[in-house]
Structure formats: C-alpha cells, structure tokens
Predict the structure.
Amino acid sequence: MSELAHTLARVRIDARPQWIRSVSPYTLIRRYWNASKADAARAELVALMRHECSERAEGGDTRTLGASRLARRRPRRYHLILEFADDPLLRRAAAQHLSLNNVTVDTLASVTRPGAASGGGWHVDQHERGLKAIMYLDDVDEFNGPFAVLFDYAGAPIAPLPGRLGRRFGDAAIARAVHRGARVVPLHAPRGSVILFETSSIHRGLPCARGTRHSLTNYYANTPGICRLGGGLGGGLGHRIGPASKTTVS
Ligand SMILES: O=C(O)CCC(=O)C(=O)O
C-alpha cells in the first residue's frame, strides 16, 4: 500500500455536532495531484464551464452543478474531471467516514474571482454528517479565496441566522465565537491539493481579493439501498468520532 493510500485508510474526521466541535473537521492532502495534472484539470474545467451552463452563486462565484454528470457524456474530453470524481481512494475515505460500504458522488466545478467568495458566508451544508473533497486547481493563498474552517467552538452553540434551515451564520456571531476562543483556519495550499471536509461543520470560502480560484468539489452521499456499516446511526458513527485528526501529507 502506498504511503498516501495508507494515510487515507486512516482518515478520521471529527463529526460531532457543531457546538461541541473542538477537533479538526478536515484533512488536507497537499499535492494530491502534481501541478501539471492540476493545470490540465483546470483547462478541462474551463472548457466544461464554457460549453455547459453555469450560474452565479450566492457568493458571486460561478459554478456548474453536476460537472461529473456532464463530463460523463464526453469522457475522453473530460477524463481528469472524471478521474477526480471517481477517485477510488477518496471514495473509500468517504465511505469510511460516512460508515457506508459505498457512496455516490456528484462534482461541482467553480471559479471564484475578485469580489466573490465561494459559497457565500459562514454556513454548514447540512446538519447531518456529510463529506466533500475540494481540489484546488490554482495555488491558493490569502488573496484568492481560500476555503476556511471554523474550529474550537469553545463549547458554546453559535446561533444561526433566522431561516435558511438554520444553516447560515452571521459574521457577528462568528466574531463572538472567535472572541470566546474559536479559530478561523484558512487553508492555503498548492494546486492539486485536496481538502476532505465534514460538511456539518461551519465553513466558508473567504473573499477573493485578487487572482482566481478554480476548484472541483466532490460531494459524497449514501448509495440508495446500501446498508450502513456497523449498525444504526449511533453505533455506526460512535466509534469513528476520535481525537484531533488533522493529517497533512506533503
Ligand atoms: O469552495 C469553497 O471554498 C466553499 C464552498 C462552500 O462551502 C459551498 O459551496 O457550500
């Protein structure tokens, strides 16, 4: 087993309810793909978004939903988008994290330009456990809209904004949490890096000041009709909630 496969086999990302989160909800794998492969994937993303419909999202970023489904229609042209969507190691890590024996995947293609912030403000994708894998297709620093994670919530719930299914959080509430000891951790990494992230944890794409950020995001979900491993929700998930689990592979 390669070192990377070994690391992914050990991936444990915390999935406790957001108000008690105090350990890492993410794993960063630096240079999962090398720079030239990431550049080729970026070119595929640009072509796909030019030829298929894209929309302006809440944060002002441009995105194409179902990029992997669109790519399957022209598998030779978009083989790297498909390679990322179908990546067996990431799928296995997702299945393990979600306590499933298989997962489905849907891939989002997105571009964040100056003035935009991928996904809008602070939010959770849903309240139930979930996993996404974001691959940066540009080198990401503090200027071009890094993905950012909130952690160490200091044991206190953060009140969501009214409506929006309780999934969105205002800047003032986050600032109060930071005052109490929570930390905002922006993830800067070279292109080709992958972030595996527990989507019930609070996060956002920070505003892009200059440059651009292209990325592919795989959303993993339950495969219909497949049983969960390890029994019901409580038992099945319980043994996977572990200590701080940030793993960085360089
Ligand atoms: O791409 C990012 O940095 C975050 C996007 C996000 O959180 C979302 O679309 O829900």
